[in-house]
Amino acid sequence: MNSATQKMVEQTIESIVQITNPYGSGSGFLIDGLIITNSHVVSGLKEVLISTKTLPKTIGTVIYDDPAFDLAFIRSPILIEHKNPLILSSQSVQDGDNVIAIGHPYGLNYSTTEGIVSKATRLQGEVEYIQFDAAINPGNSGGPLLNESAEVIGVNTFIIQNSNNLGFALPAYTLKEALDQFNALKTEDVIRCGSCKNLIHETSIKNDYCPKCGTKLEVAKRRREGYKPSGVVALIEKILKALEINVTLARRSQRSWRFEIGKTRIDINYYDNGIIIADSALCRIPQENIEELYDFLLSENSALERLQFSINENTVYLSYIIVDSSLSEEYGTAALRKLFDNAPRYQALLLSQFKALEPKFDEFE
Asked: 69, 153, 170, 326: which one has the fewest Cβ atoms less than 10 Å from its Cβ?
């Protein structure tokens, strides 16, 4: 990455948003008090989780969902007064222009790739896109495509699988048109009908059909129904709620949760093989006192009930492991409460008594 690109990234990165929901993750960016992203990134939900480099994970409200152009607008009171929103470019895009794509591929934080415009206008169905060759991947969707002036020329929308870096972005002029139409309504909870292209307020929708043309509005149904966990997932979330965990903020996917108890991080994952693992990375093994540390962990393991210590590479974990068929609300609540109580205590002890090292996490996870 050259110095000019690095400077551009530094001046825009606080306006790049990571968006997650139970079905997946993607990217977004700030324009005029709104977070801009793709419709498919919000998955038809009214609430998603958002975070930036300087903002911890919080709930954002999807106030506009447009499957026709694969656009969505998210409102967050915390971000309305953001001082450094991105700017939509008013310049025409030309073949061969240099571009930069910023986003969160595969849930990773802040990945930047450079490329050029292969085709300034490429028609896909009824929609025009910018075709470019910067390497983007799942999770980049909804992020900005920038020109050399750090202005937004497009919204990264999709790639062609198994192609050689073949990406497509919705042009800035299409985004501006959608923003202008939405702002003219002076209301929220708006969706665009994919058939007649009219903007529809949700209160006017009956039985999930467009009041203008009668087309079935799948996005209206998804927004009305929301996300509803079932089975073991619902049981896990019921237990977490009983333990006063904000499940909405903790949810990383349909089968994964992460949150902090004090300064200690807890991860819960429900795997396809039926195993549920709740664990906390307590520390890294020090270069000295290793034998004493091992003796302590083995001694504690023999006395612990429900919980156990383990070491993966050089990190010490305290874990609760159970098969889904054995999980009950009473047993699971007691076990997780014990993990929540003991993880911070053991972490403090290992760091102070054995001079263990702090665990390492991605800065913006």
From this structure: 326
Distance CA 205, CA 212 (A): 10
Residue 341 bears catalytic tag: no
Determine the Cα–Cα distance for residues 85 and 337; give it in Å rounded to an integer. Answer: 42
Per DSSP, helices labelled H in the chain are 3-12, 39-42, 172-185, 218-225, 231-242, 247-250, 290-303, 329-353
Query: Among the options 15, 27, 40, 51, which is catalytic?
Result: 40
- Which CATH architecture describes the domain 1-226? Beta Barrel (2.40)
Q: What is the pLDDT of residues 309-325, one digit of tens each?
A: 999 999 999 999 999 99
362 is a catalytic site residue: no
DSSP string, 131-182: EE-S---TT-TTPEEE-TTS-EEEEEEEE-TTSSS-EEEEEHHHHHHHHHHH
Given a contact cutoff of 8 angstroms between Cβ atoms, the answer to whether 8 and 151 are in contact is no
Residue 213, pLDDT score: 97
Token pair 């307590």 is found at 282
Structure tokens at 25: 């993750």
CATH code of domain 231-353: 3.30.1460.10
Catalytic residue selected from 39, 43, 111, 141: 141
pTM: 0.89
Q: Where are the domains of the chain?
A: 1-226, 231-353
